[in-house]
């Protein structure tokens, strides 16, 4: 039920543990339907000093035309530790304690326009997979998230 609300553009506010359960169910459904490869997964881990750690591994079949050509037949790996705030579809704040997209780039302690630019680029790359993120905010206890559909 929560995944349907999310997919229809509704906003959800859940603990990271509940997000992990919801995301695992969505990923499993996408693996079963052939949209993702087995081994795909997403995990949110709260950090003691406030930010969240995101670990993401998504594998895309060779013939999946809804993702960019360079992602087809590959696993995309992303790790971020930090805080990101998105409101009405715009990244309004970002502080990345750690950022790694595959083995392409590794950065630490990125703030301001640099961090916001990285998040905007990541969201653009993931748009065919996730849809447009309308709202994202973490208060240290619950993560509020909404997609536009």
Structure, explained:
The protein is an alpha+beta fold and 149 residues long. It has one domain. It is built from three helices and eight strands, in the order H-E-H-E-E-E-E-E-H-E-E. The chain has a five-stranded antiparallel beta sheet with strand order 2-3-4-5-6. Strand 4 (75-87) and strand 5 (90-101) form a beta hairpin.
What are the defining features of this structure?
single chain; about 150 residues; alpha+beta; five-stranded antiparallel sheet; three-stranded antiparallel sheet; 3 helices; about 30% helix; about 40% strand
Spans of at least 5 consecutive residues whose pLDDT stays below 50 are: none
Residues in β-strands, percent: 35-45%
How are the strands of the biggest sheet laid out side by side? 2-3-4-5-6
Shape verdict: globular
How many structural domains? 1
Largest sheet: 5 strands, antiparallel
Contiguous helical run count:
3
Total beta strands: 8
Roughly what percent helix? 25-40%
Reading the helices and strands in chain order gives HEHEEEEEHEE
**Distance between the first and last residues' Cα:** 16 Å
Query: What is the average of the pLDDT values?
Result: 85
Global Rg:
15 Å
Secondary-structure-based class equals alpha+beta
């Amino acid at each position: 039920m929560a995944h349907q609300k999310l997919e229809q553009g509704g906003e959800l506010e859940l603990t990271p543990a509940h997000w992990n359960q919801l995301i695992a169910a969505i990923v499993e459904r996408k693996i079963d339907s052939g949209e993702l490869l087995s081994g795909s997964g997403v995990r949110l881990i709260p950090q003691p000093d406030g930010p969240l750690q995101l670990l993401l591994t998504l594998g895309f079949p060779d013939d999946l035309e809804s993702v960019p050509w360079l992602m087809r037949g590959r696993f995309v790996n992303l790790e971020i530790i930090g805080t990101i705030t998105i409101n009405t579809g715009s990244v309004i704040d970002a502080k990345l304690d750690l950022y790694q997209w595959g083995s392409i780039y590794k950065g630490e302690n990125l703030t301001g326009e640099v961090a916001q630019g990285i998040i905007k680029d990541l969201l653009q790359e993931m748009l065919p997979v996730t849809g447009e993120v309308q709202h994202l905010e973490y208060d240290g206890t619950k993560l509020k998230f909404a997609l536009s559909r």
